[in-house]
Design brief:
alpha/beta, 2 domains, Rossmann fold, five-stranded parallel β-sheet, eight-stranded mixed β-sheet, binds magnesium ion, binds adenosine-5'-diphosphate
Length: about 450
């Protein structure tokens, strides 16, 4: 006879004792090895390998997506009892089996434990989410949920693409690249009216051709070291959209309307999810939540362009403590979820060297990262690399990284500083500038990708 399935119980309320008895009954094939009073105890028991399946009350305080991910990380399957909270919410947290129903039925729990124990492979956390109640609107949140409604109405359309912009330390231009790429993919160009408000921007572009995919582009600031998109765009919005949607994702309540509400419209066809206002808030964006945010983003947006931090490695001191949050988790989670990776390096001797090493680092990252769709060398200039700087940079990357197909962006202080001062993109502010033309070329490459 097979050994009984070991169960960690974290069930609240009067029915708990009966449930434990039923799970240990003859013929049940299950046995309760720990009765946990709270989530901390449950996580500790799971980490100690004390059970194979956790049975938890849906309303267990602190139970969120990150907690379920940690149970999964300890190899424990999760059966959640939806007696006090909606079943959909528990599914969105990633629970393997959700038992619906107002009353605790011991036989059903035994069957659910058996079912969960038989779930093969790593538990996949379902991205299903229930409607969310009363989230705060952001400063520009009045933009409305038309995009969400459109995405919802179009049914199961093809998921949008997630483009992650990464680059090594030294400010090579990750944010500039993400910002310009998003504007190009959204088709936001000059002559589109002055940006006084989101509505003002929209009004100025009535005569423009609609993009092929009616869904917008979503620009996400996921740099947990130094977020800068809000400041770059002149958004005086101190409610970081990313933190809000990550919180909703962690609680299993992130739906399309919520995502749209926290991602205000910047121009027609372009929404932005602003980043953390203080770098110390990085634990608010755990990987388990960002995964869901990007999954939802694929429904809302035709393209999601993610600006990330520079640091890739998992903290070695924390590596063996699977429960410690990791500061680089957001960057790694974004890269792991990416359809396209754009790598940006600076066009000077130090920047090129870091780029070569950065490409190596990506290949050796602690998560699988797709091969880059494009490698960008930014701020290429003769003053830093000698005459014919573009040829020199191409030769160096070919020789040291085997990258023969670069996107070279010239140094363009006039265009970039002007755009920075105006709080706008190059596409809007200086559409004929050399850097803008190079970023437009990058967008074309994304539309017709061929990995480098
Ligand atoms: N091609 C360019 N020419 C001139 N200045 C640039 C160019 N690209 C970026 N910059 C400027 O360099 C600075 C750093 O760029 P940023 O995109 O914020 O880097 P990162 O996100 O990698 O830290 C910004 O002030 C930006 O305006
Ligand atoms: Mg940046």
């Amino acid at each position: 006879m097979a050994a009984p399935v070991t169960v960690l119980s974290a069930v609240r309320g009067a029915g708990e004792a009966d449930l434990v008895v039923a799970l240990g009954g003859p013929g049940a094939g299950t046995v309760v090895t720990r009765r946990c009073g709270d989530l901390t105890e449950l996580l500790a028991a799971a980490a100690a390998g004390a059970g194979a399946v956790a049975v938890v009350s849906g309303d267990l305080p602190g139970l969120d997506r990150e907690a379920v991910a940690r149970l999964h990380g300890s190899g424990v399957r999760v059966v959640a009892l939806a007696d006090a909270v909606p079943a959909d919410r528990l599914r969105a947290l990633g629970a393997d089996v959700v038992l619906d129903g107002a009353r605790l039925d011991a036989d059903a729990v035994v069957a659910a434990v058996q079912q969960a124990a038989g779930t093969p492979g790593a538990p996949g956390a379902g991205p299903d989410a229930a409607p969310e109640e009363g989230a705060p609107a952001t400063a520009l949140g009045a933009a409305g949920d038309a995009d969400a409604a459109e995405a919802e109405a179009s049914g199961r359309v093809q998921p949008g693409r997630v483009v992650v912009v990464w680059g090594p330390v030294g400010a090579p231009g990750r944010t500039t690249t993400a910002l310009e790429l998003a504007h190009e993919l959204a088709g936001v160009a000059a002559a589109r009216g002055r940006r006084r408000s989101a509505r003002g921007r929209r009004a100025g572009e009535a005569g423009e051709e609609p993009p092929a995919d009616p869904r917008p582009v979503l620009l996400v600031d996921a740099d947990t070291y130094g977020s800068s998109l809000a400041a770059r765009l002149g958004l005086l919005d101190d409610a970081p959209g990313l933190a809000a949607v990550a919180r909703a994702a962690g609680q299993g309540t992130l739906d399309l309307a919520t995502l749209a509400r926290h991602a205000p419209v910047l121009a027609r066809g372009l929404r932005v999810l602003t980043g953390l206002t203080r770098a110390a808030r990085w634990p608010e964006v755990p990987a388990s939540a960002l995964e869901v945010v990007l999954e939802r983003a694929r429904e809302l947006a035709a393209w999601t362009v993610v600006d990330t931090g520079a640091v890739l490695e998992a903290d070695e001191l924390l590596m063996y403590d699977t429960q410690a949050p990791q500061r680089n988790a957001a960057t790694l989670a974004a890269l792991a979820a990416a359809d396209d990776v754009v790598v940006v390096g600076a066009g000077d001797p130090v920047g090129v060297q870091r780029l070569v090493r950065g490409l190596e680092e990506l290949r050796e990252a602690p998560v699988p990262v797709p091969r880059p769709t494009a490698v960008v060398v930014n701020r290429v200039r003769a003053a830093a690399v000698g005459p014919r700087p573009e040829a020199a940079v191409r030769a160096a990357l070919e020789r040291y990284a085997g990258v023969g197909d670069l996107v070279v962006v010239p140094d363009d202080p006039a265009g970039c500083d002007g755009a920075l001062l105006a709080g706008r993109s190059l596409a809007e502010h200086a559409p004929a500038s050399p850097a803008r033309l190079a970023f437009a070329g990058l967008a074309d490459r994304l539309r017709a990708p061929a990995p480098v």
